[in-house]
């Protein structure tokens, strides 16, 4: 009998984590790799949050928490949703999980049946498709390009809907393209969706605060979408808390209860110290972490100007998150330093081996013409990395 399940054998390894592991391996061999592959802020968690965690340890928060999160954390999330997003939730609509990733795994686990289709505008975040497939769902990719700033149009959405469509998953600001749907653009999608009341939206807003253009808009803000939207958020990105592992949802009560049930059998409540620290993080106004967003914007402008100086890199102007997603198909079919570049994976590997810069190929984000470069790195590292890339490809 086969040792491992078909389920795990059919699952792709997270491309971002795989690239980070490869970069670590090369570093171990003494190579000076600049890592621009991972999606995590290079800032420390702010002191006011660390202090809250230390206090929680000293106050002996060491027992299992309620599965769906401490009541006062859920209250802080409710207040945050109201303050930042004008969304009204009650405690039974909130579930706190071990990162937004677990929120998404819960949602798929409780909502996707075999053969259900889940529409995802591409490029999408690496894990969406595999989480859906793990639950026997079918990811339905809607291709977008730089021409529409990598955003799905209402016409494309309409064309992708079939009687089997169960959900739509998307992130705004988007990982990997940095695109942000304006309120009007969301309304355009909502106008299509209101004609299909059995379709649910997963609105992944984890990059909400890393926004360089203005007010964040949430799908659930529309009254006619509220009951069909699950809003996913978390503290990893805006608060530089990736390793603390706290994410949360605001959802229709039936779905939240089902996620609670699922989590109760799989992981129980999220880490108790991190939950206590998250109360402090969320209770402060977002302006408290604006210094990080300001710095990301400077880096965004820097990396765009450097990349646009290299022949063969075509970019959109990312309005949020901390990635650029250049189209590098110009290099396909060419030979660089004796290496034939057939696709984005070859190109990303070429950059790792020849420029010693770690990026991620776009294939796993659903766009094989692009690579993702994270600019959550110092300005010096960005300048050096792009200089090396320019030298390697010219
Ligand atoms: C779009 C998107 N959603 C969800 C996640 C998961 O975040 P968390 O660290 O909260 O699990 C990430 C992390 O990279 C992401 O980029």
How much of the polypeptide forms β-strand, as a percent range?
5-15%
Ligand catalogue? pyridoxal-5'-phosphate
CATH superfamily of the largest domain: Type I PLP-dependent aspartate aminotransferase-like (Major domain)
Mind describing the biggest β-sheet? 7 strands, mixed
Q: What percent of residues adopt helix (DSSP H or I)?
A: 40-55%
| Radius of gyration of CA atoms, rounded to a whole number | 21 Å
Physical arrangement of strands within the biggest beta sheet: 2-8-7-6-5-3-4
Which geometry do the CA atoms define?
globular
Uncertain spans: none
| Coarse structural class | alpha/beta
**Could you name the CATH topology of the largest domain?**
Aspartate Aminotransferase, domain 2
Distance between the termini: 52 Å
Written overview of the protein:
The chain has 394 residues and is an alpha/beta fold. It is 40% helix and 14% strand. The protein has 14 helices and 14 strands. The strands form four sheets. Strands 2-8-7-6-5-3-4 form a seven-stranded mixed beta sheet, with helices on both faces. It starts with 5 loop residues before the first helix and ends with a helix. The model has no long low-confidence stretch (mean pLDDT 96). Residues 39, 99-101, 125, 171, 175, 204, 206, 234, 236, 242, 247 line the site of pyridoxal-5'-phosphate.
């Amino acid at each position: 009998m086969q040792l491992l399940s078909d389920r795990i054998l059919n699952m792709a390894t997270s491309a971002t984590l795989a690239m980070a592991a490869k970069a670590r391996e090369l570093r171990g061999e003494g190579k000076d790799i600049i890592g621009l592959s991972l999606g995590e802020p290079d800032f420390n968690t702010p002191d006011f949050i660390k202090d809250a965690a230390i206090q929680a340890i000293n106050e002996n928060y060491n027992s299992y928490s309620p599965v769906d999160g401490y009541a006062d954390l859920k209250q802080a999330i409710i207040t945050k949703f109201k303050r930042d997003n004008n969304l009204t939730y009650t405690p039974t609509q909130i579930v706190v999980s071990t990162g937004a990733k677990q929120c998404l795994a819960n949602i798929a686990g409780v909502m996707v049946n075999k053969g259900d289709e889940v529409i995802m505008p591409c490029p999408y975040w690496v894990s969406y498709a595999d989480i859906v497939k793990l639950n026997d769902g079918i990811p339905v990719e809607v291709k977008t390009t730089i021409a529409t700033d990598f955003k799905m149009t209402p016409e494309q959405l309409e064309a992708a809907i079939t009687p089997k469509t169960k959900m739509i998953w998307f992130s705004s600001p988007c990982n990997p393209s940095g695109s942000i749907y304006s309120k009007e653009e969301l309304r355009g999608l909502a106008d299509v969706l209101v004609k299909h009341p059995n379709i649910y939206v997963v609105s992944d807003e984890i990059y909400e605060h890393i926004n360089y253009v203005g007010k964040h808009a949430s799908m659930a803000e529309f009254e006619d979408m509220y009951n069909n939207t699950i809003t996913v958020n978390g503290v990893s990105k805006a608060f530089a808390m990736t390793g603390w592992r706290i994410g949360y949802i605001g959802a229709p009560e039936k779905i939240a209860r089902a996620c609670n049930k699922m989590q109760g059998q799989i992981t129980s409540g999220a880490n108790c110290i991190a939950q206590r620290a998250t109360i402090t993080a969320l209770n402060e106004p977002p302006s408290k972490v604006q210094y990080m967003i300001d710095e990301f914007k400077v880096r965004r402008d820097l990396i765009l100007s450097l990349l646009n100086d290299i022949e063969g890199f075509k970019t959109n102007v990312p309005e949020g998150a901390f990635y650029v997603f250049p189209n590098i198909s110009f290099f396909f079919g060419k030979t660089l330093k004796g290496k034939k570049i057939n696709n984005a994976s070859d190109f990303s590997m070429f950059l790792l081996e020849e420029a010693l810069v770690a990026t991620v190929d776009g294939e796993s984000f659903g766009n094989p013409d692009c690579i993702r470069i994270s600019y959550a790195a110092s300005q010096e590292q960005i300048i050096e990395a792009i200089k090396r890339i320019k030298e390697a490809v010219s």
